[in-house]
Design brief:
Layout (H helix, E strand, L loop, with lengths): L6 H22 L3 H6 L3 E10 L6 E4 L12 E6 L12 E8 L4 E6 L4 H4 L8 E6 L1 H18 L7 H11 L18 H4 L3 H12 L14
Antiparallel strand pairs: 1-2, 1-6, 2-5, 3-4, 3-6, 4-5
Helix pairs in contact: 1-4
């Protein structure tokens, strides 16, 4: 079996990352309306509660004009922050979003708890922006996937199957893997019905086309 050469693929991913990294910097330094147009900015949230011990913030909102979703890293800043200073704001992770109640909870990112502290008070208006870690994932996740299918990170039935398809030693069809029980995993249990169908088809079929507008969780 011919070994998959992932070097040119990783070089391609790295080139794309550099472009993405630069675009994130360019977006962050735009005025808020321009950042909203790029779906990377969520302005006009009000602080409902700021936990001194954990640093968690509970915010209220009327609508979400961005692609920011649960699990994403974001910068948290006062509404009046100058674009050049957005990147200096504390970084948090979106822990929950309740669209019906119009609330969300942010927990501090790694080693960020002290930066939240007493920075935000009840009634403060804040703006959220996607962070550079979101751009870094555009390199780290594909690179990890390439190393996985190349066998650099050990072997599993699924990675072996993907490697065989990429190398042309197997034809695409049903994978033979059962659809997972979405309710057994808290992360998967949060998927909507259509997201769950897409996820299950991607597991049970070698090839799956997943289509959807920005922010639908593809």
């Amino acid at each position: 079996m011919t070994r998959l050469d992932i070097k040119p693929l990783i070089e391609f991913v790295d080139t794309e990352f550099r472009r993405r990294f630069r675009s994130v910097i360019d977006q962050i330094t735009l005025p808020i309306p321009r950042r909203v147009d790029q779906y990377t900015c969520w302005p006009g949230l009000k602080v409902l509660h700021s936990a001194v011990d954990s640093g968690r913030l509970e915010l209220s909102f009327k609508r979400n004009p961005s692609k920011i979703r649960v699990g994403e890293y974001i910068y948290v800043n006062p509404m009046g922050v100058a674009p050049k200073d957005v990147i200096s704001g504390p970084e948090g992770v979106v822990e929950t979003i309740d669209d019906k109640a119009g609330t969300l909870v942010i927990r501090p990112g790694y080693q960020q708890r002290s930066r939240f502290g007493q920075r935000f008070r009840l009634g403060d208006m804040v703006v959220l922006d996607q962070t550079l870690p979101a751009a870094r994932m555009s390199r780290e996740m594909p690179t990890m996937a390439l190393r996985l299918v190349a066998g650099d990170m050990g072997s599993s039935p699924r990675s072996t199957r993907i490697r065989e398809l990429l190398e042309g030693s197997a034809k695409a069809g049903e994978t033979g893997f059962s659809a997972p029980d979405l309710s057994s995993d808290p992360a998967l249990a949060r998927l909507t019905k259509t997201q769950g169908i897409a996820f299950s088809q991607a597991i049970t079929q070698d090839l799956a086309l997943i289509q959807g507008p920005p922010g639908t969780g593809k």
